[in-house]
Design brief:
The protein is mostly helical. It is built from six helices and no strands. Helix 1 runs antiparallel to helix 5 and helix 3 runs antiparallel to helix 5.
Amino acid sequence: MRRRRFDHFFEELSVALDRLAPRYALWLHMGEVGIDPEQLSQDEAVAFCELHLTRFLVAEGLSLAPRTRRRLERSIGRFDPDRPTPYEHMARLGGSNQPRA
């Protein structure tokens, strides 16, 4: 279930950047700072935003506006991997309307 937290982190970062974030580089950077992306906890995700995200972005030649960064940090802090995201919820609803063969 915690892998969902990394996936959400990656997706939200990509939205904030308005382009795909470098997923593998993000995975490696988390490992370099002692965070296991496979077992990413909420506290670790928030701490990564606060302590390590700037260095990661600079290393990748990327940046975020302060307001966008705060929005990203809130989204990361509020994510509950036990609940479906709005996208997952809508996909499930849309899937139920598919005609059956």
